[in-house]
Batch of 3 targets.
Target 1
Amino acid sequence: MALSSEQISKFEKDGYLLVEDFLSADDCDQLMSACHDLVTDMKPEEHNTVFTTLEMKRTSDDYFMTSGDKIRFFFEDGAKDKEGNLIVDKHKSLNKIGHALHVLNPAFRKVTFDNKVKVCQYSICTYKIKMLDKVKNKLHFQYFFEKDGYLLVEDFLSADDCDQLMSACHDLVTDMKPEEHNTVFTTLEMKRTSDDYFMTSGDKIRFFFEDGAKDKEGNLIVDKHKSLNKIGHALHVLNPAFRKVTFDNKVKEIAKSLKLEDPVICQSMYIFKQPGIGGEVLPHQDATFLNTTPMKLYGLWIALEDATLENGCLWFMPGSHKDGLNGGRQMIRNPDTSEGQPLTLFTAPPVKYDDSKFIPVPVKKGSMVVIHGEVVHKSEHNKSNKSREIYTFHLFDQKNTTYSKQNWLQPTAEVPFTPLYPTTPA
C-alpha cells in the first residue's frame, strides 16, 4: 500500500493524488451504515444549523465553532422552514457531519487510524534518496536524518547483490550443524539462552534459533533453513560476501554523509523473520545495547527481500532520537560474576511507548534504512507466508568517542572493531 515514487512525485507536482481501491466495497458500506445510524438517532430540533457551500458560511456560528470535539449535524440550506422545522426526509436533509468522527465513532476511528493511512503518511512525509553523489542529496540526507532519526536509501543494492547475500547465508546454514549451536534468541524480551555462547559471538559466525525450533533435548523439530532467528556477529569480517558489501564505497559515502570521521564496524547480523513464526521485536533503541559517549552509534539495515506490513517491516517513532536514551536503559555486563548469575542485565525497566506515534517503513528489496542509535523503532510479528530476510550492521565514530566497557560486545584480538575507511585518520 506504500505510495510509489511516481505517485509521490505526482502529489508534489499537483497537490493532490488519487489512490484507487483504498477501501473495499464492504469497508465503504460499513461507514455508510455507521453514518445512517447516526442520522437515525439524531433529533433535528436539537441541531438548528445550516451549512451553505457557496459562501462557505455557517449559520449558528457558535454551534459550528464548538464542534471540533463533537459529532454535529449541518443541514442543507432549505432543509428547514423559518420556524426550524424539517421539511424534507431527515436522511436527505444534511450537508455534512463533523468534526470529531475520527475520535468519537468506532467505525470512522478504525478507518482513520488504519495502517494503510499510516503508510500513505510515511510515503509522503519520509524523505527518500537514491543517490549520494550530489551535494544537494547529501544536504537533504543530513537534514532529514537529523530531523527524523532514520532515512531510507532506495536501490542501495541491486537485486543480484541481494541474491548473492541470501545465497551466501543459505550456504552457511547448509553447512551448520544444529547440535553444535544449542541457542535460542527471543525477541520479545531481547533475551538469549546460553549466555556464554552469545557473549563470545562478537568475533565469530554463530547461529541463534527461533524459540520452539528445538525440543527439550535440543533436537531440531523444523526444517533447518526455517529454524533460525539470526546469525551474528562477525559476518562483516569472516564471510567474503558480507565483507564485500559492508566495506563497499557506497557504505563509505553513507558514513561521510553522517559526517563520521573515523567510523568502525562493531557487529553484523543476518536476521530471517521466518514466515509465520518470525517474532515481534519490541520498541527499543540500539544504544541500549551498544552505548557510546557521546552517542555516535548508527545502524545500516538492508532489505534483501521486500519488507512489508504483513511480513514485519520496521516501524519508527520519528524524532524520538532527540530525547536521548530513554530511562537511561542499558544492557550491560553483569558486575556479579558469581556462578549462576546472568552475564548481562538491564539498568532500568523497559520503557512504554505510545503505539500511535509509530510510522511503518515498508521498503523494497535492495533498500537501506539508516538508523540513529537513539531513535525508537520496532517490528511486528511476521504473519505472512513470506520471509523478510535482512542484513544489518552497526558502526560508530571512534573519533573523540568512548565505547562503553560495560557493553556486552567488546573487540577481541582476533576481530577488533574494523575501520571503514582505508586509512584511519590520526
Target 2
Amino acid sequence: MATLTVVAMALSVVGDPPTGWATCGGLSNEYNRTACPSAQGTCCKMNWVPSDGAWGCCPYAEGVCCDGGYTCCPHGTTCKNAGSGYSVVTTCVAANGTGTPPGADGGGQEVCKTGGPLPFSTTKKNVIILGDSVSIGYEPIVADMMADVALVQHSPWGGDGGAEETHYGWECLDYLLSAPDGTPQRPDVLYFNWGLHNTGNNTVPGQGGPIAEYAPFLEKIAQKIASLAPQTKAIFGITTPQMCSAATDAVVQSNNKAAVAIMAKYNIPTVDMHAAIISQCGPAPNTTCFGQSTCFCPHCPQDNGVGYRWLATNAIVPAIRAAL
C-alpha cells in the first residue's frame, strides 16, 4: 500500500467549517482539520487520514465508530468485525440480532477520507488529482512539473489505496471533493481515476469491490463530477495496467472500456494511461517495465519513480496543461 507524504504547505488556516459541519475531536477549527456534517455523517477515526487526531467522516448520521479505526455502522447497531487492520470488514448487528453485511446499505462502511489539505492558490491555477494509490505515486511529480502555473494536490489526503473502489468513491465523493474542514473544493482541473480496486469479486469496503459494481458507481461519480462544469474541467485517467498478471489486466481493460463509454456519455475527456504504458513495456504479463522489475504491478516507485515520471511527462501533464 502507498503512503502519501504530507506537503509542508499544509498550513494551519483558521476558519469556520461550513454551516452544519463541526470539527472532530473537540479541536479548534482549521482548514486542514477534519469536520463532518452532523445531518449526514459522524466523526470517526480513520487511520489513513494524517490530519490532527486522524479523523474521517462515517457516512451514517449518528453512526457507531467501530474498533480498529477504519469502519463504522448505523445508529442503533453494534459492530462485528472480521479480520484486522485496513482489511477489516464489519457486519452491523441490530438489536434483534439481525446482521447487515459489509458494504450493503446499513452494513459496515469504511470511514471516508478527506480531500486535499492545501488552501487554494489565489495566484495560480488549482489542480486536484483524485484517484488510487498509483495516482499517489505520480501526483508529486505532476505537482513539481506544474509548479510554474498551478498548485497541484491529491485527494484523498492520506495513503493506502487512495480513493479505493467505485462504491467507496461514490459513498465518500462529497468528502473527497472538499477540504478536510468541509469547504467545497472546485479546482480549475480535476484529474480523476478509478479502476484498480474493482478487479475481483470480493467486497472489502474501502479496499476493494466486485467487478460488477465498477461501472454503475463510476457512472454516478462521472455524472456528479460533470455537473461541476464549467467551473471545473474534468479529465478521466484510463486505468494503468497490471503488468504482472494477464488475467487481472484483462479485467482492467474490460473496466477501461466501460469507463470510456461512461466518460463519452458525460463529455469528459480521457487520458489513456493504460495504452501509454503498454506502448513502452508491451502487454501483460511482463514483469519488467521501464527497466525495473515489477514496475506497474501495479505501482512503480523504483528508480525514483521512473515509470511515474514517464507517465506524468508524456501523458498526464500535457493533458492538464492543455485544459488550463
Target 3
Amino acid sequence: MSDSDEAAVIRPSLSEAQVVELVGRLYGLKVSEVKPLPSYMDQNFHVLVCETQEGGDHGESYVLKVLNTDDSQYADLVEVQTRVMMFLNQKGFPTTTPIPTIDGKILSLETISCGEEYKNYMVRLLTYLPGTQLLGISADSQILYKIGRTLAQINKALTEFKHPNIKSLQRDSDIWNLSNTHQLHKYLSAVKNTSDRQIVEQIIQQFVKKIHPNINNFHKSIIHGDFSHTNILVQPLHSSADCSNAADHMQQELEISGILDFGETARGYYVYDLAICIMYLTLDSEDPLHVGGHILAGFESVIPLTLQERDALYLLVLCRFSQVLVLGTYNILRYPDNEEYLLTTTRTGWKHLRQLWELGKVAVEKVWFMTAKSYLTQ
C-alpha cells in the first residue's frame, strides 16, 4: 500500500452467501461451510467444499482471499507475488498455492456489491495448509532457529526467481517498506501516549541519521516482507496428533508446516526481512530479549550478515515496531470493526518497544550476538 493511496482503501465485507456464489461460479465448487479468518486489511475465509456438486460430506479445504480495493488495483504485482508462492512451493517450501479458476486463471478481478455500491476486488482461492499459527505461542529456541534459517533459505532461493513483471516488486512508496520509516510522522497524532510518541519520534530521527544514508550498502533481494507469528504455521515434528492446541505445542519439538501471506513481498534487503521477523516473534515470547539471537543464528547459518547489516539490526527492529504500532493505532481509529485483530500486536507491542529502547543498542546487541555465537560451539 502506498502512502498516498492509504486514505482510499476500502476493506471488503463479503457475506457468506457472496462467498458461496463466488467459489461456485469461479471454481465450480459446491461450498458446504464458510468460516471467517482474521486479516489486517483484506478479507479471508476458510472454505470447505463438498466432494461432489450434489453435496454430502466435506471434501477439500481452501482459503478464499479477497484483497482490499487498493491492492486490487495492482494486478501485475498480485500475480508476481502469487508466482513467488508457487515458485517457493516448487522448491520444497510449505507455501500456500492458488487454485485455478474454471478458465485457468490464478486470480480474478471481481465487481462485488458493497452495500449500496459496487467495488472491484481481487479474488484468489488458495490451498489450506495444516498447522497452527505461532500467534499466542511462546516459541522455543529450536523453532526460532528454524524460522531464521527458513527465512534465509527463502531469501536465497528467491535470487533465482524470474518473471516478466518482476519490476512490480519495486515498491518504493509502500508505507510498510522499512525504507519509509521516516513517513510515520504523518500518523503519529494517533498515538495519544506522550512517552510512546516521543520514543517513536527519536527512533525516526535515528533512522534518518543512521540507516537511511546507508541503505544501499545492504544486500538487496526479494523478501517475504511479513514473516510473522500470524504467517507461520507450525505442527509437532514427531506426532500426528491434533495440532489445534497451542499448549500441547509448547511440549513438543515443532516444525514449520506452512508459510502464508505474500502480500508484502517486494524488492528489499535481507536485513529488513530478518528485522521484521525478530520483531513479530518477540511479541508472544516468555524470553523476548533472547528471541533475536536465536533467529539471527538460524539466518546466519545460511546468509551471514555484513558488519553494517549487523550494526543496523537493532534499530531496524525498533523501526518495524514503530511501523506496526503507529499504523495499527491509526487504523483502529479508521476501522473500528477490525479492532480485535489490530489489537493483537498493540496489546503487547508497546511494552516490548519500551523495553528494547530503554535497554539500548549495546545491551540488546550483546544478548543477541552472544546468543547467536553460542550456536557455533554446539
